[in-house]
Amino acid sequence: MNNRFWSHVDKSGDCWIWTGRRDPCGYGRYHTGSEHLAHRLSWTWCRGLIPDKMYVLHRCDNPPCVNPEHLFIGTQSDNMIDGITKGRVRLPPQDGEQNHQAKLTAALVEKIRVRYAAGGVLQRQLAVEYGLTSVSAILTGDEWPTAPGPLKKKRVVYRPGRAVRSWYRANA
Ligand SMILES: [Zn+2]
């Protein structure tokens, strides 16, 4: 093991804290000819080589921690998911409507349909309550057609047939 490396590590707590230089995200940086991430070096020395394109992630969500017990190997998407669930990574903002649609789940769609079918609530109120631009397409099943819940009947627009139209033309 690399003694110079471990001399920069404070092992007094559960997390082994890198006391050397850190990057803006709080990850330890270490020079051995070229610059490395301290927790990746720790993994390499304690556990072995990191497979290509894989990431060393923190179970403890403590970036300067280099305790191999707190580290695990994951893919880039694990890294993203890890960051998102821990609030470190923010997904790029989407435009309002898409964002709102993304918040919906089939269970929520069902709830909206059931509440509307029960009556006493306006579409507008439901839309506001659930942060949607409109709930009408959800209620008619134009959106979320496979989600459960009672569907609202679409308003039938009366279109006179050809015979009726020609009768009107002839008699107008
Ligand atoms: Zn830790």
CATH topology of the largest domain: Homing Intron 3 (I-Ppo) Encoded Endonuclease, Chain A
Helix-strand string: HEEEEHEEHHHHHH
The molecules bound to the chains, other than polymers, are: zinc ion
- Helix percent reads 25-40%
CA gyration radius, whole angstroms: 29 Å
Question: What top-tier CATH class of the largest domain fits best?
Answer: Alpha Beta
Residue stretches low in confidence (pLDDT < 50, at least 5 long) are 93-101
Summed up, the domain count is: 2
Strand arrangement, largest sheet?
A: 1-2
The secondary-structure class comes to alpha+beta
| Assigned CATH architecture of the largest domain | Alpha-Beta Complex
How far apart the termini lie comes to: 100 Å
Can you walk me through this structure?
- The structure is a single chain.
- The protein has 172 residues and is α+β, with helices and mostly antiparallel strands.
- It folds into 2 domains: 3-85, Alpha-Beta Complex (Homing Intron 3 (I-Ppo) Encoded Endonuclease, Chain A); 94-172, no CATH class.
- Helices cover 38% and strands 12% of the residues.
- The chain has 8 helices and 6 strands, in the order αββββαββαααααα.
- The protein has helices spanning 3-6, 38-46, 76-85, 96-103, 106-118, 123-129, 136-140, 162-171; strands at residues 9-10, 17-18, 29-32, 34-37, 55-58, 71-74.
- A two-stranded antiparallel sheet has the order 1-2. A two-stranded antiparallel ribbon has the order 3-4. A two-stranded antiparallel ribbon has the order 5-6.
- The termini are far apart.
- The site of zinc ion (ZN) has 6 residues, from loops.
- Zinc ion (ZN) binds at residues 15, 60, 62, 65, 67, 70.
